Amino acid sequence: MPTPIKTPVLVQSKPIPVAPQTAPTITPSAKAPEITAQAVPKAPPPPPKVEENYAEENLGRIRTILAERLKYPKNAVRLKQQGETTVTFTLDTNRDVSQITITQSSGFELLDDAAKNLIESSASLFPKPSKSVRISVPIAYKLR
């Protein structure tokens, strides 16, 4: 799920000292006061979209790996269970997975558990991310 982009807010850390002013006297030959502009510091560039970039570049490969390794649970076949589950997980830079959750259930615990196990057993084959990323993938179990 993409992270919403937040607009940076400029915060001035110290007030700019202002010298006390006396009321200027205006004479017909006086020049208009000079106005100087002070540069406002530029906002830092937004952080790179690591998760979005990784997903765009590698989600197809991850889905292919999962499809090649998908095994239908025997008890689910016997009970004629089918459905689609969405699994969300964190993939670390060393290809370890953590925080595996079912974000959309198939309606059957056997299929949801099989999907989690599929992620755990396949993670070592996923493309290696440069930073930890959070990924969601749908996994469909359909009887033929």
Structure write-up:
This protein is of the alpha+beta class. The protein has a domain of 92 residues: TolA/TonB C-terminal domain (2-Layer Sandwich). Helix content is 27%, strand content 18%. The protein is built from three helices and three strands; from the N terminus they run H-H-E-E-H-E. It has a three-stranded antiparallel beta sheet with strand order 2-1-3. A hairpin with a 5-residue loop joins strand 1 and strand 2. The radius of gyration is 29 Å and the shape is elongated. About 12% of the residues have low confidence.
Radius of gyration: 29 Å
CATH class of the domain at 50-141: Alpha Beta
Q: Classify the helix fraction into a percent range.
A: 25-40%
**Termini gap:** 31 Å
- CATH topological fold name of the domain at 50-141: TolA/TonB C-terminal domain
> Which segments are poorly predicted (pLDDT under 50) over 5 or more consecutive residues?
5-21
Tertiary shape: elongated
CATH architecture of the domain at 50-141: 2-Layer Sandwich
Strand order of the largest sheet: 2-1-3
Q: Work out the oligomeric state of the chains in this entry.
A: single chain
Overall pLDDT confidence: 77
CATH superfamily of the domain at 50-141: TonB
What is the strand tally? Answer: 3
Order of helices and strands: HHEEHE
What's the total helix number? 3
Task: Tell me the major beta sheet.
Answer: 3 strands, antiparallel
β content, as a range?
Answer: 15-25%
Content-based structural category: alpha+beta
